[in-house]
Amino acid sequence: MSSKASDLGSGVLLEWKNLTVSVRSSEKRYYGRPGHQQRKEIAILKNASGAVRSDNLVAIMGPSGAGKTTLLAAISMRIGGPTTVHGKVLINGLYVTRTQMKQLTGFVPQYDIALRSLTVGEHLSFVSKLKNVGYAAVLRIVNELGLQGCWNTRIQCLSGGERKKVNLAGELLTEPDILFCDEPTTGLDSFSATAVIGTLHSLCTGGGRRAVVCTIHDPQSQVFQYFSDVVLMEETGTILYQGRTADMRTFFSSIGQSIPDNGNPADLYFQLVSPGRIVPARPTDAEDAIRRQEIIRKAHRENVARKCLMTRYHQAKLIQRLTNDRHRICWARQLPLLLHRTALHGLRNVWEYLTVTGIFMFTSVVIAALYFEVRPISQTAIQDIRGALFLMISELVFTISYSVFYTFPSEIPLLRREVGEKTYNLSAYYVHKVLFSVPRAFFETFLFVGVICAFVGFTTNFGTYCYMATVSGAASVLAMAYGYLLSCTTGSMSMAIEASNIIFLAFMLLGGLYLNLRAFPLLKYLSFFFFASEGVSVYYWLSVDAIPCVAVRPNGTTGTVPAGACLSTGIAVLEDAGYATSYDALRLNYAILATEILVVHLASYTLLRNIIRKAGFY
């Protein structure tokens, strides 16, 4: 074990004093004098004080809703969301900020914190680079946790216990002296749970001399024996006992609770704080209740005092470690690493992407079949060509915009985790997502438009095809930006889709097929349908010099169209729809389009940041 694991001296001491955590009541109840009223808050953790030192493996136990995870998040200073925290947290006698706490400690949530398509080696390599940790440290942690055999195995193929170890390995790369684990045995069988807790125990008792604090729900006896200390919480959010595991039986005897000699100790202690427990009859004398509370408070004070007196630490080493933090890289290095990771994740799911793209391209074949060999040879064909162009644009931008709705909602747990731990900046994550999606939008657009142009016969000029595909691709990028905006506004894929149905319908009406755009000289610029529809129309119709003034009747015969109703040139068709009639006019569209893409993405990023802050990091 590296000597850096003990940089804070011969030991580390974590203390928390009078921690109280409150959340706003869902009921709109207020208190205070008129004009200065505040919404009533509910305390979910009350006046918690305690201490943890090196070599301690601490279990926070209690019934569901007792506040185990709240206590863990509060003492690790990683609690977020709409909560109010009062109290102090100290490391080695020094008050620390939330940012400093993250530098000195590690936090392992109960859910997976890795892209499941990556291998163990790839995931840890990316994490080590983002945290500026050398490759030698990665190999050492892998050997320490026994992950050598699954180095080249994808995370989705690992067992539950192995995935927990992979999560743990990512946190141990920065060699924290204090490690927090939220429900490390959740979803594991007894063998895997024992193996995971045994690994945590070895981290405490080995050369690293770490302190590990876990929340755990009703552990088995093989697991419970590994814990050196226990924090037992009641359903009211208060701590009934905290101290050494070996002293629990004596403590409960002192407050009149007898503990049987047989059975799982954890089950017996858990029954004492369960909501449905049967409480033996006790004297109702007020002095007896006061004596009981005094015994509890005295035990708490003695536990804290014992740990403070037994721990040797150096504050100077703590300050030095905070000032010399090197486990963070600059924004410019974060971006290519995130792009590389996402590209590798995409390659691992390439068959899924090819399947979806194949279905998408089948749509272009259907459109091409419906409008096969349509030519501007009559006034009737004008409507057919308008419909084909608009249907091509509609299918394209709808499909590409909908493809991003699942992006942020599905990745928010991982994003909250990695941004919360300052592994990378949220802005770097957002920019890499946009940069990764833009080439995809243009690639799919050129394929989609190419199939339709080839079979419908819109153009035989390769340059015209490129212009039509380029303007459609640019509009698709704006459609993706609106998809990101709706996804970040609602935070839910289903809500984003429901909202898009209304908004995109309005945008479609501004596309030029259903409404004359002269009535909406400014509002039309909000619609990505307009940019794409006007662009492809201009590039197509300006190459059409003459259109016969004949129309095909329903019986198949032809007739002459009066001169006043005849659209005899491509420019006349553009004027009739309210579109531009020159290539130069499209330059303004491109400038507005680029500006709008930037503005929508800035708004999306701002909303995403608010979602992350409001939801908290865990």
What are the key terms here?
618 residues, alpha/beta, six-stranded mixed β-sheet, four-stranded antiparallel β-sheet, 21 helices, 14 strands, 53% helix, elongated, disordered N terminus
Helix vs. strand class? alpha/beta
* Average of per-residue pLDDT values: 84
Shape: elongated
Could you give the distance between the termini? 30 Å
Summed up, the helix count is 21
Strand order across the largest sheet: 8-9-10-5-11-12
Largest β sheet strand count, sense and barrel closure:
6 strands, mixed
Total strands: 14
Range of helix content: 40-55%
Could you name the ranges where pLDDT drops below 50 across 5 or more consecutive residues? 1-9
Quaternary structure classification:
single chain
Proportion of residues in β-strands: 5-15%
Rg, Cα atoms, Å? 32 Å
